[in-house]
Each structure stands twice: as structure tokens, then as C-alpha cells.
Design a protein that fits this description.
Blueprint: H1 2-8, E1 24-25, E2 35-36, E3 62-64, E4 67-69
Antiparallel strand pairs: 1-2, 3-4
């Protein structure tokens, strides 16, 4: 148990990872397209969860359970 507590105490700061590829819209013809990110995954959402607007290609995704969520 002591070992488990010790491993929780380690600090692993968050960091941005530079992307080699630029994300792109899956179907730019639709009003609110999904985004395909550089790892090949497609966003689960088609609109921003905050403003309900079109997703922004410049905003990095947040991964929830390994799946990308796009933002505006």
C-alpha cells in the first residue's frame, strides 16, 4: 500500500505535444464538419460543446477515454 501511495505522489506535468500534421475537416462542405486529427482519429463532436459553433482547426483536442473532442 505504501508503494501505491508513493507512486501517486510523483509529479508528471502536462505538456503540449507538437503536431507534425495539420488537422483537417472530414467534409468541409457541411455546415459543422468533424475534424480528422493528426493521429487519424475523428472528433466525436461536430460542434463546439461551449458555444455550439463550428470546430476550430487550431484548437487542440481534449482526449476523453482516448477519443478526441474538438473545441472552437
Amino acid at each position: 500500500m505504501l508503494l501505491a501511495l508513493a507512486s501517486c505522489a510523483e509529479e508528471h506535468p502536462s505538456r503540449l505535444v507538437a503536431s507534425a500534421k495539420v488537422p483537417a475537416y472530414v467534409d468541409p462542405a457541411v455546415e459543422k464538419p468533424l475534424i480528422r486529427f493528426d493521429d487519424g482519429q475523428v472528433s466525436l463532436n461536430d460542434k463546439c460543446p461551449v458555444r455550439k459553433a463550428k470546430l476550430n482547426l487550431r484548437m487542440p483536442p481534449v482526449y476523453v477515454n482516448g477519443k478526441p473532442i474538438g473545441f472552437c
